[in-house]
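User: Protein folding is very new to me. Would you mind checking the protein record under this note? It all follows right here:
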Amino acid sequence: MNHSPQLYTYSSSIQLEYALFGKGVKKLVCFHGFGQNLMVFNDLSTKLDDHQIVSINLLFHGKSRRQEGPKYLHQNEWKDIFDGFLNHLKINHFSVLGYSLGGRYTASTLKSFENRIDHCILIAPDGIVKRSSYEFATFPLGSEQLFGFFMKNPKPFFIFLSLIEKTKLFNQWTIDFSRAQLQDEEQRMRVYHSWITLRKFRMRQLELIKRINAGNFQSTVIFGKYDKIIQPKRHFYFLNQIPKAKVIILDTGHTKLLNESFAEVSDVLNKSKSL
């Protein structure tokens, strides 16, 4: 099969870049994490018996774009975009997987297309528990503008990073990660547009719990024991409230978690039956 990325055009200012991996009849729609691309799910397709992967580049990654419209992406807008995408590929029922930032897309997709989803897989999902660094950077009264200034002017940003390092408000791993990831201008702009646009693009934790417990679909939630970004210990309440879901904690950190989850993902999907 040709794995070359393709484009779905929703409007003159919005398009999604995607690729198809595998030849299965069932569909698994996948959303990667920040700074990754749709190719990260290619290896997963080789482990699946009867699923074809529909891997989508997140907005501001690859050729996926949103150039106009309201400042923030909202649920209804994503519902219209993704509904058109499903129609474009003639997809009716499907499973959905999201890693890290892609978890926001997965939760929003679940909210609008719950009755068409067979299995929902969340891997270290962002947006379930609020993170202080994200909330500060995207708070609309002042800090959002400061965040934008820093992303466009890196020298004072790195000075600021050194200052907050001394306050101990953020863990050292996050600060080191920020230094490493934000050296490149293109990457900084991707951070800025992704964080600002997705500020309100999340499902409330209690609503997600209710949907997982009451929904007519299977659920799997995977965390990394040593994850410093999406920490499992901050999600204990969430995990304790979803007895219906299969919860897996792997002995790894955030960076390696996705690849190390593939064996677990393939196991649950290959064993699952269509609902």
